[in-house]
Design goal:
heterodimer; B: mainly alpha; extended
Amino acid sequence: MDIFETVFIRNSLIVAFAVIGITIWFSYMLADKLTAGRIHGSAIAIALGLIAAYFGGIATGGSTGVADMALLGGIGLMGGGMMRDFAIVATAFGVQLSELKKAGIAGVISIFAGVIVSFIVGALVAILFGYTDPAAITTIGSGAVTYIVGPVTGEAIGASDTVITLSVAAGLVKSILVMIGTPLVAKYIGLNNPQSAMVFGGLMGTTSGVAAGLAATDPKLVPYGAMTATFYTGVGCLLGPSVLFFIVSAMY
Amino acid sequence: MIVYGVALLSGCLVLGMVIGESIGVALNVDANVGGVGIAMIFLVLASNSKKFKALTEGAAGNGIKFWSAMYIPIVVAMAARQDVAGATEGGILAVVAGVAAVAVSFALVPVLSKVGNSKTIEKD
């Protein structure tokens, strides 16, 4: 066993490539055999990844899913921010500028509408659950924007650790739901062209959720959605600890 | 050469990140403001420009396409390293806030797509 452990840990990123490859092969087989291709293989692979992350988190008590297990440490690097950003940018290769110009106005509107609408919904839920402290309401609202905007805002305006944790959890639920729910609702919300993909990316904002959800719907739409989605967190980090916090404070 | 395409991709990402970080500093926000999006714009501009042909066509282009194709596997790895156990412990509030935000946002997609469409038609 020592030999295995040594080799696996020394070659962690290579092990991750193999493990992810097998997971995807298995997921595409399931998608084909069990759902007759109705649910895309990548959606099943992502769901399996999330399930594995749950058990990894329970088993190790860590915060990075299976990456906390020594033998699967390479998944942390493969799925980390650096590789994710590199691959997201690569998906923009081959995008036609003429298509982008068409979605321009709606794209920008959707980013601001997405941040503000998600914030209002999250803040209302916090109020319904009995929160009256403006810092807490703002932080939970920001968590509904993304799980990055939540803690950024919370720390900037001095919310409690519990509230910040809740905001991360709310953002995570959103991200997971967008990942899994997008292929299921795509038909009903007209998500089948670059224009609606850019609006979708701007409204949802969670980069990982948008990219994964669109990949499972139609991989060609990923760059359009990802392009608007990547601006969303920046806009959220700007508005959350400033304008949105001032508005909530004025009301309470 | 495959590495030319990979180098172009890397250059776009680094440049985008530096600009995003600078905007964050300028606005006094502890965030990389749109760095990845800016990098994507650079790559789109490069792949639509004749000047960068040597870095985007043939084998060099395959170097970029490889990383584009690795996107889904990387997203699967990313899913496997999320703090899912933390989210379920976060309680019903987190679930309700996340679900409600997604439901309302989904419903707005067709509405805003129409806004964009009608504006394009008016221009035409």
